[in-house]
Model the fold of this input.
Amino acid sequence: MKVTTDEKVSVPHPAEPGTQSAQHRQLLQLIDEFSLVLIFLLLFVVLSIAVPHFLSIENLLGLALSVSQIGMVACTMMFCLASRDFDLSVGSMVAFAGVLCAMILNATDNVVISVAAAVLAGALIGFANGSIIAYLRINALITTLAMMEIVRGLAFIASGGQAVGVSNEAFIYLAGTAFLGISMPIWTTLICFIMFGVLLNKTVYGRNTLAIGGNPEASRLAGIKVERTRVLIFAIQGAVAALAGVILASRITSGQPNAAQGFELNVISACVLGGVSLMGGRATISGVAIGVLIMGTAENVMDLLNVSAFYQYLVRGAILLIAVLVDQLRSRAARD
Amino acid sequence: MSAYLQFNDITKLFPGVKALSGVTFAVDAGSVHGLLGENGAGKSTLLKILGGEYQPNGGELRIANQPRHFASAADSIASGVAIIHQELQYVPHLSVAENLLLGHLPNRFGFVRARVTMEFVRTRLKAMGVSLNPTVRLARLSIAQRQMVEICKALLREAKIIALDEPTSSLSHRETEVLFRLVKDLQAQGRVLIYVSHRLDEIFDLCDACTILRDGQTVVSHRSMSGLTRELLVRQMVGREIKDIYDYRARPLGESRLQVQELVGPKLKQPASFSVRRGEILGFFGLVGAGRSELMRLIYGADKAQKGQLTLDGKPLRIRRPSDAIRKGIVLCPEDRKEEGVVPIRSVSENINISCRRGYLRWGIFVNAKREAQTADTFIKRLRIKTPGRRQLIRFLSGGNQQKTILGRWLAEPALKVVIMDEPTRGIDVGAKNEIYQILYQLAEQGCAVIVVSSELPEVLGISDRIIVMREGSVSGELSRSDANEERVLKLALPIEDKVK
Done:
């Protein structure tokens, strides 16, 4: 082509994309959106064939139970990360809520009061987290790191450093109850996933959370009450973490002040595995569910294969790195 | 004639979009070449190809008659290309010298040789004729000075080709003059300059030749500016005739809508008072940093006012945060679209419905997907927002279309009373400008009070019924449309010591 000089070049309109290629694109988009699900399904099929005892109802229920607490808290952690925040205090909250619930239970022998009190305490701690972060504008990492230490300390102080045993039959029965062959902790987690999925996708709360994560200042100027939303996110997170603590206490029939060490990092890992962006604004509930399942499956399979616990750490770290790397490549490809 | 830089038949495809198709033009050494086109015409894409950020799907880039293929930004830099983006790239907490030498600071065993660095930069800056203190941190410089640092960085690398993307969009008059002098020096040194701007005056002042893009194609490449007129260029850019982009229409003014009395804020030197009537378009002019945006942010509740009284339709008004203002029908389109306007990774629909959705929630918390889709489609159509659909992420839209989306966000509000637009047409092309003015006129005709903050004098003079001028943090004067002219407005806007001239 020659260089045009002072001549008008006719400007034909760019060709309309053909319907066929549009369909093709839609299909690709769909695959991209559900690629995590596809990867997991593939992994699942491979493991079912390759690993003996993996594909049995008993084993799969065990798997689900083992990630039920992580799953619950991952739902609320998703909101936290989606709004560009962080919460490191959930592990301590799980322990503290378990201890508190056990102690109140021993004092009152009333399941409803003790569970309610523990959940309320969790919500209050979360409220404190959120208020400090939103109104006093202290970095979320620092605030929740401090709160992690404080709440863990409270758990030890309250229990005197000892496990608080529970003798209340009804409370112990709580975690053991099954409906349709599925135990209560798993049901609770399922309900959490549905509830927080609806909250994220169908409510103002969810939309505002994603908007805040996408651009906090623009959201504020668009009339979103950013501070209030953040406090709410942390308060709900606290309540759910406490509920997880109560369920854990029921499962192990005691409140353990040193329970759930490193829990917060497992929860965040599961979210990141599920494609939640640490930069905020990007999160899907299906992704988080898959992230939780991938973590549980990896651990379960390694147990079945008798992999030593020491090596399991390496594998878990590797899986996290690979998952994030894949996600990076994918979003880089999408940008170009 | 041997052109130094040639674009031959450059094509770039994005999924579903042909961003560039067959773009062809040439730039001579020692010339300033204007690149014009509406938003979305493909100017930025072309610069990104030149900068190695994008790889073309077809065509050829030639530098000094050698075909070049840039696989990365580093390739492009190595070939002597420097792109000065509209959004500058620098490290705010490092000094001028450190920013200039970032990546290859003089060091001994990894320890930076601070004095050597400073001395080196000082002598080089002096040689370039730039008066900047190399030890000052970038965060403490004005936007214009930061831009200067960016250009100096290109010069330190001995860049032969320098592309400037909308360099004056956030510069004041005086800063623009300094930039122009620098550009002319560079041209005299035989460098190749590509100058992207929406401001036709600048193109005529500065450029030797220009190329016009539309819809990703070269409309025409003028080898010289002689004989060209504004009207011709605008017609070629827009593809249709626009006689007067302001197209002002007088309208009857109503009663006082918003009164601001003695408003005091951290960045205002004196308490500010003014009022605006129903149906009135009130222009706010001033140099960058005169306190116009700060005053608007106080009214909107984006920043806290320390003192002062607002009155809306005769009733006292208390605004503590933006959501209070919105509920009273006062909205603000912020100056910095990217940082304060859009939520980039959300869709056009989300960005439109972000505030007005509260009016049609189900059971108080559930969003009404159907109504939101309707609202989004209505405003995409009414404001002619160019997007493949309401689900498109807003960051893929051009600046003008992002601005229209934010306008859509506020037009969707049920009872608008006061619309504040801070730099409504910054970085927006002529065609879209005219469309935005038309929307403002319509709003005013419906009885809204419209406040337009702008650094573009012709714009303020062109659309306002009345003009308030600010200078260094205080209101310096007020002019009616009939009294206002460039000279009078500038007199009120320029700092006192400049007024002697």
